[in-house]
Amino acid sequence: MFIISITYTCNIKEIELYLDEHIKYLDYQYDAGKFLASGRKNPRTGGIILALASSRDEIEKVLADDPFKINNLATYEITEFIPSKTSPELSLLLNTA
User: Fold this and answer.
1) What is the pTM of this model?
2) Which three-class secondary structure state does DSSP give residue 31?
């Protein structure tokens, strides 16, 4: 499992121009089973994605298709995370390692 921290490197107005494309990209990755959760940071300086992938290389390839990355609007910090304990509602995450 990976935690992806996205940080905008431009004005929020530029982000808004690509937001619909970014949402389509997110929808595609959810349908492909790669993304588990995503959302905006507060304050709105970027976002967070929880993702499943077999390797860092794979997740980097997935992120390469994000319109924010394609258009150099954000940076991405990728952290691999191996869940060892969860609430009962999130126990499915224990099988991702």
Assistant:
1) 0.91
2) helix
For residue 53, the tally of other CB atoms under 10 A from its CB is 20
Tally of domains within the chain: 1
What pLDDT digit, counting tens, does each position of 36-92 carry? Answer: 999 999 999 999 999 999 999 999 999 999 999 999 999 999 999 988 888 988 887
Contacts of 73 (CB under 8 A, 6+ apart): 8, 9, 10, 14, 15, 18, 67
**The domain containing residue 19 runs over which residues?**
2-83
Q: CA–CA separation, 80 vs 35, rounded Å?
A: 14
Asked, for residue 29, whether it belongs to a domain, the answer is yes
Residue 21 region, left (φ>0) first, then alpha (ψ -120 to 50), else beta? Answer: alpha
Per DSSP, helices labelled H in the chain are 12-31, 56-63, 67-70
